Amino acid sequence: TSSAREVPSSTEGSDADTRFLEDFRSMSAFGATPSGGVDRQAATEPDIAQRRWLAELLEEKGMRVVYDRIGNQFGLVERVPGAPYVVVGSHMDSQPTAGRFDGAYGVLAAAHAVDRAARSDEAEGASPEYNLAVVNWFNEEGSRFAPSMMGSAVYTGKLPLETALAVRDRAGVSVGEALAPTGFLGETDGPEAAFCAEIHIEQGRVLERSGTTIGLVEACWAARKYRVVVNGEQAHSGATVMEDRRDALLGASLLVVAARELADRFPGVLHTAVGSMDVYPNSPVVVASKVELLLDLRADDEEVLAEADRILREQVIRVEETAKVSVDLHLSHAWGIDPYQPEGVSLARSGAERLGLSHQRIRTVAGHDSVNMKGHVPTVMLFVPSVEGISHNEGEYTEDGDMLAGLAMLTEVVRRLGAG
Ligand code: GLV
Ligand code: MN
Ligand code: MN
Ligand code: MN
Question: How confident is the model at residue 7 (pLDDT cuts 50, 70, 90)?
C-alpha cells in the first residue's frame, strides 16, 4: 500500500524501531499456529506464557508490573507522586485461529510508546502532570469466556467482578479458577486513570482504500449480542416420522438465515452473524434436542439496531412455529454509539499533523477495550491499516511501516496526554 511508505518524522532512531519489530516477532511466537496465525485464548498456556514475557519486557524498561483483581496487567511509570495515569494499551489474548496483530500490536506499541514518551519527557526536562501505564487488558476476545472486553468492563465498573470471575468455559472451568494459579490475580483495583489511549489494526479496508496511515476513531458502531437457546426434542433421525420432529438444529439454522436476511434489509448499516453453535447431543443418527448459539448484531445507527431487534423477535416466533421448537433469546452484551471525546480526536489530529502522517476520522465497527474506557475517562483511539481488511483470520497483516508510523503516533499522543 502507498501508506506503508509513509515515514514519520520521529525523534527516535531506527535502532528503536528495529527493536520494536524484533519484539513484535518474538511476541508472535506465543501460541503460533502452523498457518502463520496465533491461538492465545484468555488464560490458556500461551496467553499465560506471553504475559510472563511481557512482564519481563516492561520490567526491563524500568516499569513496575502490577495486576488488578480481574488479571489486567499494568506496567507503571511513576514519575508524578500521587497523580493518576494515562493508561495505554490493548489486549494480547486472541480468537482460536487468529492473526498476530489484533490486540497484540497495540500492547507492544503501548510498551514502546510509554517508554519513549517517558524518556523524551525526562531528557527535555518536561514537568508532566500525569503518570503513565501500559495495560494488557484481560480477555478482550471473549472466545473462551464470554462476554468480550471483560477486563476493561470490570475495571470500569460495567461488569461486577464476582460475575466475571464466575463465568465458565465449555469445559466448566471458571475465570477465577483459570487465573488463580497464574499469579495474575492481584489484590487491588489497578491504577487510577486520567486518560486512556489505544492503538489497534483497523480490521476493515477504509484506510487501505483511501491510502491513509492513521485512523482517528471518533465513534463506534452499536452492538447487541444474544445468547440463544433453541429447545427441541431428541429423536431418531431415521425412524422418527417428519411430522413428529421438533428439530432444534433446524430451528437454529432458520435463525442463521434470518440473521443474514436481517442484514440484507439494511445494506451497509447493519452487520449480523451467528459465529458459534453448540449442538446437543451432536451425534449422527440423532435429531438435536438443543442448540445454543451466539448471535451478533452491529449497526452504525441505533434506530436501525432497535428495529433489527424488533424484527429478530418476530423471526424467533416464526422459527418456533416452523420448526416446532421453543427459543430463548437472551441479550448478553450491548453497547451504543457513544462518540469518543472530540478533544481527544483533535489532540490526535494535531499529533498526526506534527508527525506529517496522513490521517482521517473513522468509526470502529469492532469492539475494543477503549469502547468501555471512553465512558470512564477521555479516551483516544487510533487505527493503522489492515491489508485487505482481513481480521479474525490467520492471514491478518499490517505492514511494518504502518506499525512504526502508528508507534510514533501513539508516542506523540501519550506525551500530549501526559503533559496535562
Ligand atoms: C470484540 O472485538 C467485538 O467486536 O465484539
Ligand atoms: Mn482486538
Ligand atoms: Mn479481536
Ligand atoms: Mn475486539
Answer: low
CATH number of the 222-335 domain: 3.30.70.360
Q: Is the CB of 148 under 6 A from ligand 1?
A: yes
Domain ranges of the chain: 2-221+337-419, 222-335
- For residue 11, name the pLDDT band (cuts at 50, 70, 90): low
Kindly give the distance from the C-alpha atom of residue 66 to the centroid of ligand 1, in angstroms, as a whole number.
Answer: 26
Please state the pTM of the whole predicted model: 0.95
The span from the CA of 416 to the CA of 21, in Å, is 24
Which ligand sits closest to the CA of 90? 2
Q: Which residue has the cell 479474525?
A: 392
What is the model's pLDDT at position 10? 54
- Residues 256-292 have pLDDT tens digits of 999 999 999 999 999 999 999 999 999 999 999 999 9
**Does the CB atom of residue 94 touch ligand 1 within 6 A?**
no
The mean pLDDT of 36-59, rounded to a whole number, is: 98
What ligand 1 atom has the least distance to the C-alpha of 333? 5
Most informative mutation of 148, 159, 200 for ligand 1 (most atoms within 8 A of CB): 148
Rounded CA gap, 346 and 341, in Å? 9
Q: Atom of ligand 1 at shortest distance to CA of 142? A: 1
Residue type, 69: R
Q: Is 367 in the pocket of ligand 1 (CB under 6 A)?
A: yes
- According to CATH, the topology of domain 2-221+337-419 is Aminopeptidase (3.40.630)
Any idea which ligand is nearest the CA of 334?
A: 1
Q: Assess contact for 187 and 178: CB atoms under 8 A.
A: no
CA of 228 to the centre of ligand 1 (A): 18
Cα(55)–Cα(390) distance, integer angstroms: 29
Atom of ligand 1 nearest to the CA of 225: 5
Assess: ipTM above 0.90. yes
Residue 1 has pLDDT above 50, yes or no: no
DSSP string, 123-139: HTT---SSEEEEEEES-
User: How many secondary structure helices (H) and strands (E) does the chain include?
Assistant: 12, 14
Q: Measure the CA angle with vertex 397, ends 391 and 402; round to 5°.
A: 120
